[in-house]
Amino acid sequence: MTSGEFEGWSTLDKRTLAVTALTFAGAAVSAAIPVTVAIVGGGARFWVALAWVVAGGVVLVGGGVLMELFYWKGVRYRVTPDRLETAFTLIFRSRKSLQRERIRNVDLTANPVHRLLGVAVVTIGTGSHESGGQGRIKLNPVSRAEAERLRADLLRRAEIAETDEDAPLAELDRSWIRYAPMSFLTPALGLAAGGGLMQVSEWMGLQKGLIDWVIGLFRGIPLVVAILILLALAMVVGLVGALGLWVEMWWNYRLDREPGGTLRVRRGLFTTRSISIEERRLRGIDLVEPLGNRISGAARVDAIATGMRQSDDKDQTDYHTLLPATPVATANRIAAEVLREPISPTQAVRLTGHPRAARGRLLRWWAGSVVVLLAIFAILGFLLTDVLLVIGAALGVVLLPVSVLLALDAYRNLGHGITGRYLVGRHGTVRRSTFALERDGVIGWTVKQSVFQRRKGLLTVVATTAAGGGAYSVYDAGEEQGLLFAEESVPELLTPFLERV
């Protein structure tokens, strides 16, 4: 690095070393207990095992801090009138920059260690999907004050002010927590906890003893009853887990409209998140009603906007969610306020239903899926054990009528319509989605028709847009019905490809 080459550039906050030390120390302590038990179980003395574990922890923490020190010394960043630039200048050199006019989101995240030390992670993105993260820069970490300054500066909010005194669009209502257990996440967490317990017991060499203990506990109880009891226990654990996860994600939730035209979502108990969406890039909303929430009369609101940051495998944060599951009336009210409409488009229009042929298609699809599953159980039962035949028969008694009910519900949920500036579509049963998309935001139409749809006179029209998921579908509409809807929604876009009869 030449002298003065990086004059005026900023460095990351030096407290990153303490963050790394505490993080690695926590990981070392978490791993120490099962490792110590495993070593002692192998015949070693406790003090010898402890010495090895402590030495390993020191190496882990020390190595992590040393690597972070090299990273901290090598990273520089600066904000110019035209660009945000970063550089790494240790051992090898690399530079990266984003044009400020292309920056679409500046998100702030702080886990408990960050909050303890007064720092935050700033993720700046263009909303594009280049490979290798070329459309994103992460500054990990900077001081909390610097993070707020960068957010205001990069989103061109020179006039931004603290909005705590202004009325927010929405704030946390603790009664919303009642919708947290009404999710497929509840049984998933319960089953995952049971699987995790079995895995840990295997690591510690106690799995056989655990299984014998459970068998002894249910001795004399019919197998079916024992299974039902275990499933009930898993559901209780899943319920507690779902409640805890909801509190962690949505505590201190607040949705603000800031000066300059930015929607800002702030939430989180231990890990805090601040997500910004420019209103001029908002193209609509998606009212999402998973089956459990719909039964309890709740829905969440997702933003349909251009340049939205997408979650990856390492980061499952829903950056597009504006409102968690709330009463449907509340969700529609917030959707209307977000869109600056007197009434939410999702409730301002009476949706047009789809032909009865769509109902038959859904019935065949749902019932056929169950029949395929039962056929697999039957084949395996004949080849392996009669127990699978009994399980398959029990599943058939339950799943066949359920599949019919879901198919009929999915048909009732099909619909589309136009209201003012928006086209509206609805579909789904396990996860019902009602989207309202700005007609001006549609850049193309895709018409899909499978062999089976063609035989029944059905088709699917897909509105292509640069916002949100990129495509929003109206499923199983009548041929003439779907094409006329697309033509009326965005005149002249599809007209040149239509043949008049």
UniProtKB/TrEMBL annotation:
Keywords for this protein: Membrane, Transmembrane, Transmembrane helix
Species whose genome carries this gene: Amycolatopsis coloradensis
Superkingdom of the organism of origin: Bacteria
Residues that span the membrane, as ranges: 17-40, 46-71, 184-201, 221-247, 365-384, 390-411
Domain YdbS-like PH: start-end pairs: 72-152, 411-475
Protein name: YdbS-like PH domain-containing protein
